[in-house]
Design brief:
Layout lengths: L1 H25 L4 H27 L3 H36 L15 H23 L2 E9 L8 E7 L10 H13 L4 E4 L10 H11 L8 E3 L3 H5 L2 H10 L3 E2 L3 E5 L3 E5 L3 H5 L7 H7 L8 E4 L7 H6 L3 E4 L10 H8 L5 E5 L2 E5 L17 E9 L3
Helix pairs in contact: 1-2, 1-3, 1-4, 2-3, 3-4, 5-6
Length: 382
């Protein structure tokens, strides 16, 4: 953990050091502007780590707001880095070809106007990405499952994942999501992990639980944990969901309305914490799952997707990836996962990986969109 923290701080410090250096060069001839830049940028850099440190000692509105404010710098520094690097590459190319523009005009490191233009462009990207993040789209997915269900021929379900409720994504975001979920009038709601990010103040906890209780679904609310439920204190985070009436399934299967089974799996973070994660086959045998009925699996991370196919699962619902969240990280994300977002069919098994209904860190999406997934499942298809 210590080594990981040191690596993170080294990367964070190196990126911000580079931006800071370029800013000092750009405002070298403007003392007042240089002072404003030093003070302002230092505040941005220190806000997130200071907020985290203070909040780790005692929870207070000030530390929570400082953390939330500083989180946006995580996205801002990414685009400042990319645009400044792009400018430096252009200047290098101009040098190599001995072009006169190499050290003049916009490409000069001492041009304050070009640095301001890059800063404004980065802020605009963050603003648009924020609007994209807080306005989830509705994704409708219609699937046919070739199994006999005597009590119904159709099931309307809502899939939610990766809200990351906590210091940054607060109850106001959840309020909006709950209203949108209820407008869809689902029979059942599935949570595919990372619903709660970390422990919060008692006041905020009560608001979150209160809004989760407002979700209307006659067949219930079911969830599997994500990795962030473990990071922020597993028992505490799960208690938020359970207080709201969400059935959190830990390597467990339950039969719903004599119509279908829901299996919730432990996240891989449990394995890293020294716990056992049962295989799908073990869960099915342990809980006496009748494979003649539809089987829906909630598994936060979309890994080893062939296991669901081989076990005879009808539908697996996952999240975790955020579909990359920030460009260009979404391009790397696609290389890591067999399916980083969207629908996939393996044999007779339907798989859907949600991009998530919230965000990790800043409420900014530039590489994907937030979503609420409406699943229309049809049984006994002809």
């Amino acid at each position: 953990m210590f080594i990981f923290l040191m690596i993170v701080l080294l990367i964070y410090g190196s990126i911000n050091g580079y931006i800071f250096w370029r800013g000092l060069q750009a405002f070298s001839a403007l003392k007042a502007a240089r002072l404003i830049f030093v003070l302002g940028f230092s505040l941005l850099v220190l806000a997130f780590p200071l907020g985290r440190i203070i909040n780790g000692q005692f929870r207070h509105h000030l530390s929570e707001r400082l953390t939330a404010f500083g989180s946006y710098h995580l996205a801002l520094m990414l685009y400042l880095l990319l645009l400044l690097l792009f400018k430096d590459i252009l200047r290098l190319v101009a040098h190599l070809f001995r072009l006169k523009i190499a050290e003049a005009g916009f490409l000069s490191v001492r041009n304050p106007a070009s640095f301001l233009a890059i800063a404004i462009a980065s802020l605009f990207i963050i603003f648009v990405g924020h609007l994209n993040a807080i306005n989830p789209r509705l994704k409708v997915l219609e699937l046919k499952i070739s199994k006999n269900v005597l009590v119904t021929t159709e099931l309307k379900a809502v899939l939610i994942s990766d809200i990351h409720l906590g210091i940054i994504n607060r109850s106001e975001r959840l309020e909006s999501l709950v209203r949108k979920i209820n407008q869809l009038e689902p029979d059942v709601v599935f949570f595919a992990g990372d619903i709660v990010d970390e422990a919060v103040s008692r006041e905020e906890e009560e608001k979150m639980v209160g809004w989760l209780k407002q979700i209307k679904a006659p067949l219930g609310l079911y969830a599997c944990p994500g990795n962030h439920e473990y990071y922020g204190g597993f028992s505490k985070n799960i208690s938020y969901l359970e207080k709201a009436g969400v059935k959190v399934l830990l390597d467990k299967a339950v039969k719903v309305d004599e119509a279908f089974y829901v299996i919730g799996r432990k996240d891989w973070a449990a394995v890293r914490a020294g716990e056992k994660r049962m295989s799908l086959k073990e869960i099915i045998e342990k809980d006496g799952v009748d494979l003649n009925l539809p089987v829906i699996v909630l598994d936060h991370q979309p890994l080893n997707l062939e296991e669901a196919e081989k076990t005879g699962v009808d539908l697996q619902l996952s999240g975790h990836t955020h579909a990359g969240q920030l460009f260009p990280l979404n391009l790397i994300n696609k290389l890591v996962y067999e399916k980083n977002w969207g629908y996939l069919k393996k044999g007779h098994t339907h798989i859907y990986v949600s991009s998530g209904s919230g965000t990790w860190g800043p409420a900014v999406r530039t590489g994907s969109r937030s979503e609420i997934v409406l699943l229309k499942l049809f049984f006994n298809p002809e």
